[in-house]
Design goal:
mainly alpha, two-stranded antiparallel sheet
Length: 453
């Protein structure tokens, strides 16, 4: 009589099968393959949202200077940004948030409408056409070709530029530095409440990180800074009024502006900012993370670029300027985001702002500054030079210095390409043809920005 046949004994039941839905989602998002967990992705997605939540208040305020109804700009920011970020997670399966780029909204408000005297419907028409051009080059995989041609030293330089930019955003929000016309113009108040909020958040984040609490470092820093802001009375001012008036700019863009030759230079500048800025951000954010495969490429890149371009087209129809992959995604990536699940969480929270608009007035944007500077510090200290190549160090230095001088990722990218390509020529080497073309186009786009606006 075998053991299972003995009276009173039952065979040991087999282990339970994993739920099919859970296993399917795990495989779809490569959750286990990238060494992540559901909890980590959800916390990281929330971290990204907290870091970029200021955009739902700041973007309408900036575009309001151009005459765009603030309620419409708020609706476009939350609705289009939320849906695009969810699409980034579900289709591209990457943890990148999508939101209106600050460099674009300032350009539209103060240069295109303010200086060039275009109406805001005409300005939104220019944004629309730049988005259409972005869709075209993304479908033709031209942006992917540029990304594939970027050498390793350039990827390190772009990661350094993105890290520097994130840190400068935190310093600017905390009023530690002052900007004028999109450029650093001096030091601000290093003893005021916003500055102290940064110090508190950064200190808590660094302390928790030293204890190995990766996600808790970011969330703890934001929570500590928010608590300080509550006691210090630091607020962001009046918040948006929910869905009321959200359709005021719907389809109000003026597409006939394409017939105006003077508008072409603006469209080209918007296109260049989006084209090269998105490349720099995606490459910089993914550098040194499991988001890249063994060859240094980012799976889902084509889908991510199409989401970015499609969001710009949709955003212009709703009342906002160009949408981009947001550098604050680095906060979630630092907290452990490795899959599109984090982006879905961020997108849902961003979309929920449509129904929680009045509460945003009580969310101090200064509470996020410590987390932003913390992520910048971790990104920059994690960089490793490529061998002992002094050219790599020179390219990285050029990108960082240009970022500080211009607060523009695309111009930092241009500086890195010029130094790398120029040094290769002086050394008697022949750069890849794609690098030649990219260097020339980048240089031309930067010159066009300064000459036309």
């Amino acid at each position: 009589m075998t053991a299972p046949d003995r009276p009173g004994l039952r065979p040991k039941p087999p282990p339970p099968e994993p739920r099919s839905g859970h296993g399917t989602l795990d495989r779809y998002f490569s959750l286990s393959a990238r060494g992540s967990t559901w909890r980590r992705e959800i916390v990281a997605g929330a971290s990204t949202f907290l870091a970029l939540s200021y955009i739902v208040v700041v973007n309408p305020a900036v575009l309001g200077q151009a005459g765009i109804p603030r309620a419409a700009a708020f609706f476009a920011t939350a609705a289009v940004g939320g849906l695009a970020t969810m699409a980034m997670g579900l289709w591209a399966r990457l943890p990148f948030a999508v939101a209106p780029g600050m460099e674009m909204n300032a350009m539209i408000a103060f240069s295109v409408v303010g200086a060039l005297a275009y109406t805001w419907p005409e300005a939104l028409g220019m944004v629309f056409w730049s988005g259409v051009a972005m869709l075209a080059v993304s479908l033709l995989r031209l942006r992917e070709a540029v990304i594939d041609a970027i050498p390793r030293r350039m990827r390190t330089a772009l990661a350094a530029a993105v890290g520097t930019f994130i840190g400068l955003v935190g310093l600017q929000i905390a009023h530690l530095v002052v900007t004028s016309d999109g450029r650093l113009s001096g030091l601000g108040d290093w003893t005021g409440s916003p500055a102290v909020a940064l110090y508190v958040g950064l200190a808590v984040a660094l302390g928790l990180d030293a204890l190995g609490a990766r996600a808790a470092a970011v969330l703890g820093g934001i929570a500590a800074a928010a608590l300080y802001c509550a006691f210090a009375g630091v607020t962001t001012g009046p918040g948006p009024d929910g869905l009321h008036g959200g359709g005021a700019a719907l389809l109000r863009f003026d597409l006939t502006v394409i017939a105006d030759p003077k508008a072409w230079s603006v469209i080209l500048v918007l296109f260049a900012l989006d084209f090269f800025g998105s490349i720099a951000k995606v490459v910089g954010l993914s550098a040194g993370t499991p988001l890249q495969d063994g060859t240094g490429q980012v799976p889902g890149m084509r889908q991510a670029l199409l989401v970015d371009a499609g969001a710009t087209v949709a955003g212009s129809a709703a009342g906002s300027t160009s949408f981009v992959a947001f550098v604050e995604s680095a906060v979630g990536i630092r907290a452990g985001a490795r899959t599109g699940i984090a982006a879905v969480v961020t997108g849902l929270l961003l979309f929920s702002c449509l129904f929680l608009g009045p509460l945003l007035a009580h969310v101090p944007v200064e509470a996020t500054t410590g987390a932003l500077v913390f992520v910048a510090v971790k990104m920059l200290t994690a960089l490793r030079p490529v061998g002992t190549d002094r050219l790599g160090l020179a390219v990285t230095a050029a990108a960082v210095v240009t970022t500080v001088a211009t607060l523009a990722i695309d111009q930092a990218m241009a500086a890195a390409f010029v130094v790398s390509t120029g040094a290769s020529v002086l050394r008697g080497r022949r750069p890849h043809p794609a690098l030649w073309v990219t260097t020339l186009v980048l240089t031309a786009s930067v010159l066009l920005q300064y000459l036309s606006l």
